[in-house]
Each structure stands twice: as structure tokens, then as C-alpha cells.
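Next comes one such specimen:
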Amino acid sequence: VQLEESAGGVVQTGGSLRLSCTASGRRFSTNPMAWFRQAPGKEREFVAAITWRGDSTSYADSVKGRFAISRDSAKNRVYLQMDSLKPEDTAVYYCAAQPAYTGSDHLSGPVPETEYEFWGQGTQVTVSS
């Protein structure tokens, strides 16, 4: 079972970038998914989550209105669209999955990383000022 993030990159302040995460080894259509990030010298933090049905999402306050999480279960893929990027968004971004058929049916806030069983290796996103 593997989760693989797409390549990140360097983008200017105010720019946009879309990350994708592809699951291999088994289908992840029934697994709640999320994105986390870790900036240099800081702990890993929650960014966004989506239910396995894809009908509810939640975001960290710092990215609300700028980032959007979505999924394409047919492609075994989850996305993170990042707009209006800021230098403080610079971090390694990780894709994560909970066990199948778990998680809340309605997301209202951050989901602890301890609830996620599968993790990608991470991809670097750098926002230049």
C-alpha cells in the first residue's frame, strides 16, 4: 500500500499549485483522506481533510478560503488545490489516509494525525516572496 504525492515546486507569492496523491496497492475509495504539512523547525500540522464519500471537508484556519481538497475515487486520487499562496505555506506536504469506512460523516474541524494509518513520503512546496 503506497501513497505518492505529485511533485511540488517553487511558486511566487499569490500563485497557485495543485498537488495530487495517488494510492496504489489497493483501492482507497472508502478511506477518508487528508493533507498535512511540516514547515522547517515546526511540527507537522493538519491542512485539509475529506470524508470517504467526498461529501464533507474541513480545513485549517490558516488555509480556509485559499485551499480546496477534493477526490476522484475512480482514479484512487486526492487533490489539494492551493491558491493565493503565501511564504508561510512553504512546507513539506503529506498525503494521508485513514482506515476504510472510518472517520466522521461530517467534518467540522482538524482531524488528528493519529487517526491516519497510511502516509506518503511528502513533497516540498516553496513559496517565494
